[in-house]
Records
---
Amino acid sequence: MRKIPIYSHPAAGWPALIASTHKLMDYKALTRGGLSVFSSNQPNGGFDCPGCAWPDHKSHKTIDVCENGIKVLASETMSTKADAKFFAQHTVTELQGWNGYELEHSGRLSEPMAYDAAQDRYVPIAWADAYARIAEQLKQLDSPDEALFYTSGRVTNEPAFLYQLFVRCFGTNNLPDCSNMCHEPTSVMLSRQLGIGKATVKLEDFQQAKLIMMFGQNPATNHPRMLEMLAHAHKQGCKIISINPMREQGLAAFRNPQKPTHMAAGQSDAMVDNVIQIQIGGDAALLTGMAKWLTKNNKIDTDFIKQHTSGFEALDQWLRQQSWADVERGSGISKDEIISVARLVAESPQTICTWGMGITQHVQGDDNVAMITNLLLLMGMIGIDGAGASPVRGHSNVQGDRTMGVHERPNQSLLDSLERVFKRPMPQEDGHDVVSGAKALISGKIKAFVSMGGNYAVAAPDMSAIQQALRQTQLNVFVATKLNGTMLYPGTNNLILPCISRTEIILTGQGKQFATTEDSMCQISRSQGNLKPISDSIKSEVQIIADMATQVLGAESAIPWQAMGEDFDIIRDYIAEAIDGFENFNERIRETERGFYLYHPARHRVWNTDSGKAQFEVPKYPVTYVAAQMAQANTQLQSSTDNNSNVTGTISTAAKQKVWQLTSVRSHDQFNTMIFGYQDRYRQTDRRDVLFMHPDEIARLGWQKGDSVMVMRQDSSNQSRTLGPLIITEMDIATNAVATYYPECNDLFDLDTHAPDSHIPAYKSSTVVLERVSDSTLAASA
């Protein structure tokens, strides 16, 4: 086996501090950003860091922010403005040619802008004129369902509640949000199996766990504050297993910047005991093998299963039908290794399963979450301290937005509650999620698109098709802090409405306002910025929504939109009436420094499911699903007689040596679609046009590191999609597996390839063919 170049330093430590400082300087945010670091995740007037949804520590810390968080803060607090002067210097056509890094560094949006087709530029517009245009266009729609209202998970609870109320009063449930693209299988399957689509653990449970199994997760990059808790758990004797096709070097060891001994003496904490490098898409197969061994050898909690669960017999029968050969083929892991992990589960009195989007973003993403939950139920690991289900979400308030009612498929209880509180009918038909909304947009059925944050067209599959569809709408509205690619494909009316960021003061006639957020573990916390807004011409999200609602709904609305825009306490009083768990919201959020924990019935073994018990679920897809997809693609290649090789998608005989499974990843220098820079420190590359591959596989093909390759995929309509050329880069990744960066790869993915119930796009598992591109071909195409 060839040696793989690895990052030899612990995660975090001095490199993280240096990189954070450089990023503050890069954004020209050393003063504003530096001040915000000391208020991030702090009680009594601090704000919730937008960089992730990991819970805040209960004990006070002078600094409670990570490298990733500081990069997000640098982005929000930059002093450069994307104002009228900026847009006067750049046409929209020119900006379409800018990459994600260039757009991200263009500056803070600082005044309302409208697209002028004659100039091909954004030009200033008065707030009143912008609202009038929005109202005019929305009222011209034949149906409210011709509008799509998207939401980013960075929107806090108060504007999220107001937004969904405005949209439903307008008459539609077309409320897609970023959950549809990240953790929707978690929400769908945990709700079905446990009665609530949220984590069953608290932060304190990680201090008591004896086994932590991490599925499809890279916390060193995506939520680095989790590393401290993992390191602490490991020192307490907890075994930690990472299940991931990629061996992430950021999980090897952790140097805690909060510990002087670590920073001065060069100490670090070990974290992961073992890495199980499964085949991409092999999680459900691995979990099936573990559950098969545990049930056959009676290593399960039969008392818990009898008292608290339903559906065990069907699952047990299904497990018996699965052959070990299929389990090994589907997971890429040997029977002996699977059993060794199952033994750890059997011996552990307290087990936490934690997962990220490496579990959810698959065609079989629903099955993946179901099998994790099945495993926990088999062992009775729901409803005891130190154990449970711990999905870790990325956006800081994506869970809170869903709690506040931002959902295209709302529960009837929510609609009934809103009707009771606001004394008006609410739309009853399910609305569009991200996938169906994008399809409706592309087909011309959506005439207006409104976005509260986010970068919809770039984050979704088929991004080029969505971008072009936005050109055909009669109205696009973007409430945001930064310029992004979705804003650059204007329809007849295109408006950018700049908003106050998390780090900035919201000052109204009623004084300073604070908002609230919900983290991945159901903790509700205050969030209050302390910096002067970047411009006097920007408004809070709450005020923008209140203004739009006032203009669009007019005198017929008895809801006090403007009063809520001035006083967030009024919004919280309405939330207390309409949303379960928020009784006496204003009083409770002020009672303690860290807010309060939402009641979680499953944690108390109360099951709000159809059966009244926790529900085992039988997977819908065979454990060999991915392997079968690859075998089918390989058969199709072998039967082809086309020997022509070029860079436009024709696959040559030389390329038929291998079919690969591709996964998308985020670099260490990015947050979702926000590209902070090009340095992926732990993977040791400083460019984004790369394809990660194991060096043994590179050598087997007779290729070399640095070669250029095209990536090709047949989509669900049997159409060829092509990405590249990409540069081959070495990485410790599973056999048959390759990886490349999101969102640059999103045109490889189509909107019809998704999980059946949650509709999550399959960003993390696609069957592809690679073709090496010769130097002469590259030169000719250049």
---
Amino acid sequence: MVAVLGLLIVAVVNAAPQPSESKAATDFASATQGLRHAAGFFNVYRDEAKGRVLLGVKEFGQPFLMMSSLPWALGSNDVGLDRGQSSESHLVEFRRVGSRVLLVEDNTKFRAVSNNADEALSVRQAFAESVLWAGDIVGERKGANGEVLVDVSSLLISDRHGIAQRLNETKQGKYEIDDKRSAVSLADAKSFPDNTELEAMLTFRGPGEGAFVKDVAMDPQSVTVRQHLSFVRLPAPGYAPRAYHPASGGLSVGWYDFAQPLASSIDRRVQPRFRLDKVDEVGHVKKPIVFYLDRGTPEPVRSALLEGANWWKTAFEKAGFKDAYRVELLLEGADAMDVRYSLITWAHRYTRGWSYGQPIVDPRSGEIIRGNVTLGSQRVRQDILIAESLLAPYDKANATELKNQAEQMALARLRQLAAHEVGHALGFAHNFAASRLGNGSVMDYPHPLLALGADGKISLDHAYGIGLGAWDDFIIAHAYCQFAPGAEESSLAKLRADIAKAGFHYISDQDARSPGDAEPDGLLWDSGPDTLKMFDALMAARRTALANFSIGVLPPDRQAGEVEARLVPVYLLHRYQTEAVARLLGGASYAYSQAVDRQAGSMPVPAQTQRDALARLVATLGADDLALPANVLDLVTPPGADYARNREYFATKTGPTFDPLGAVEAAAAQTTLFLFTPERLNRLAWQHARDAKQPGIGDVLDAVFRGTWQQTARDGSAPAALAVQTAANWVVLDALLHALDDGKLHAQVDADVRASLQQWQAWLAKQGGSDAVAASRASAAETIRKYLADPKSVKLRPLPTIPPGAPI
């Protein structure tokens, strides 16, 4: 079928006039004379004199996989072009058109999996394919097994990785390849029996005005990186795809199959996984899964990553495999971009950022060809910073002991991180509900567990779990276990039933990352099984850390202005547990399932739990929680000469000095970000309409108003308590006006919010007085009056900037 379609296309293209610049091919021997030759999947010929790479193509119309990667990269977390980064795989083929060769990407999104060739062809014809590149034939070997020689240099120096597009998307300006300053890398042109590896240096010229490019490039108008292309033979037959189930904990690879029966969905999905073929009853496999760690990883990080990534061994053993998985250091001299190696890259960036795990799959079947993991090297430094900020070791008699405790916490986090990202590369998704059962899964995001000892001091001895959890054993079994013929479906159903009986819930990214999400278990960086109890414990740890905050949080060789950067994670220590508490308010529980599972619907969080959550959220907007203690206020100092604040600091409106109200506003904004998100307000209104016991819009806004604008805190209760409370009050009002202004509230919810604001306005207008608090209340009343009368008459203030927390 492929060959027939290829002949049809060739016939049509050949009928068209050929470009005049096409050159007649010379004989093969003359074209390759003096060239260095590497035999393999595609024969590679290196022309050092002309600086070009020639490819020997023996068969046309035969699909293979192509992917790009970055062996030398940009180094900006914000742009996201990291060393070791890989693209997805693309199903491509070479087609000959006269004296030219086209590289064509097949459309794998739409297909008809059918024995009817005409039906399959009709779907291929219905959806566009893509010609990615065209090049001239420069030589040809005559005969039945003739080999065509193609100059692929222009392909290698084209932007197959989407580098210019990424720079443009991140507002760094329009960049274009400068082919005069780009060149193929002849030394990196290699070929092996099942893969061919090619590389080039690409130089992009651009405006050089983007801040992120300026941060990292020596000349931001000339950005030079390296792009690697891998051509990979299609996997041999024999791989059996496993159907995706939404409760499996796996990722999915899908396509639209128009050959499905009329009553069936055309949306077909399979779970990506490596091929594991057992060769004996013990469970040895023909080809084990091996991940290789970047040799550029230093100690003690190297040992921690090897240990953590190897945790998956036990899960494969429990699933019936022997020596089927391991992680080891990359072979000396090996090309890290060679597609034969599943890789864990230790990636350096200018600032800290996320790490990634990626399964690179055959898009036809979901079979994982290669696992690719990128670990950002700056993250571990942030973990140490957090630990040192909590322990303040450097002015203590036992400084060495405390410093070691901080480092050990960071290394424990690295072990968990290595296992987590390799888990993605093995085909698994996040499970943000697993922490409800403690160390339930490495596929959750763990917040460090902080304990207050009998001496009242913070301990980090057990900040992170060790090893896999029961959920991790389940997802390996569900993806990789092999069953007797005809028993797979029932066996997998039993695995899902058993893990549910064990108390595990599964909630992933689509229900966990938005401020308006509803599922109480879908929590990033939360701290355990009981949200409210853990919130109270974390607030106690926060108070202790602030009370003990000192110059000892800073290593002796750091400039004193960095104290403020160390304050940020301590003052905002409760940020993720505040989000967890907010999920209870207007929250609803549900599960991923299929119709056959007979599990459907959602259940609101009980009314009393919602009201308890509301009380805690309101407390975070009060001066008692927001006011910084005197020992902190008297310690923070401006940055030293030649140093400056960056994104890791609080915003300041007080010039060089620390801005306490800026910190207060950031913390208040952290709460209102989740409290007033329109999706939550809409749910609250509906839940209350269906059950009057549930808190409604009026209940929530009344509680917030009592805890903020109606507070009568005096300066004696905390340093500058009145000023602190007033700053938080304005953030509350501004955030609520923004929620109205977004236009995302249902009409009746909008009306409820406006009714509450009218009550606020009436109370504030009656207060009178001439002190600062009275003046602020009068100004707020006027702002509300004007906004409700004509929203366009009030210019809303931007909400406060919150320093980044994640990733930790």
